# Entry
Amino acid sequence: MNDTEKKIGLKGLTLNELEEYFISIGESKFRAKQLFNWMYNHISTDFGEMQNISKELRSKLSSEASLVTLKLETVQDSPSTGTKKYLFSTYDGKKIESVVIPDKERNTLCISTQVGCPLDCKFCATGLMGYKRNLTAGEITDQYLLTAREYGKENITNIVFMGMGEPLLNYENTLKSIEIFTHELTKGLSRKRITVSTAGIANKIMDLAERDLRVKLAFSLHSAFEETRSQIMPINKKYSLKENIDALKIYAKKTRTRITFEYTMLKGLNDGAKDIKALIALCSSLPSKINIIPFNSIRHMNPGGISAELEPTPLKRIHEFADALRNNNITVMIRETQGDDIAAACGQLAIKNS
Ligand code: SAH
# Structure
């Protein structure tokens, strides 16, 4: 056990939790706001520099508490697109990745919520590496803080929960990190700039709707047919597409937002005429748009079974598919592949031997 493990970790605590902490150590609860601001606004990891906190309290905090969670190991650059992949290690020797994707007016940070993923989607490298554990709220938050420190906080303009893992299966910690990212006290990001992507945990989508968090929700659809979806996304057997769509309708209504359907195009599997027809019917049933993702190769994982047989839909067909949907008044975006040269594109995040 090292020093950090014995100390209480403060990174990832919400304002309420920090207040409780200060009360528990016999301090005034207004200290919470000061520390909150230091940790999440100034990105400080050193109690010593927190000049508005008394020297005695700073030294007490230094001996009892820690502000460190992740350690940045490497940064990989994609020369063609400017995408950067950050590799972090955790206190227990696990490795996770985050990606910063620059675009014209924005830099989007893609963060992970789990080490690996339990969902086993057949097209996803993270799924192939299996599930290790949930990330703590501190570890989720630190992916933002450590990349923001490099880029400048104001230059990370958007956050997407689309890295490793299923955010709605690490629900409480995902919610805490959203609270921290968007908090007015630290001039956080607007909720509109945060997207949670889910493979479909229907009861959690309902809960999210009730909380009225108003973050954007993306749903990994990949097929509008139950059977095909179950074939490539085993979670569909537990929470059916129908259950999820019912929950998404409520989410869209409550939050007055459009749902983004993510649709990774797989040759011969979900790119036919019948798929277009089913998508048109689905999209007309709730406010939505479609984000088409070209399938990124997962060959670096040496997959077996159905995963080994998956092939990308050719670009020409992707465009035909998108046009057919657009002709039916559906908003469609084709996501440009970013960072596949450093295995940082959608679904390529995986660490062997983590
Ligand atoms: N667990 C969340 C976040 C995962 S990754 C979810 O399922 O939504 C973000 C998106 O990338 C998801 O839509 C996912 O289905 C997609 N994806 C996964 N592997 C991919 C691959 N190899 N090529 C293209 N997209 C992929």
Summary: The two ends are 19 Å apart (CA to CA). The first helix runs from residue 3 to 6. The chain has two domains: 3-66, 70-342. Residues 121, 123-124, 162, 166, 197-199, 220, 262, 264, 293, 295-296, 298, 346-347 surround S-adenosyl-L-homocysteine (CB under 6 Å).
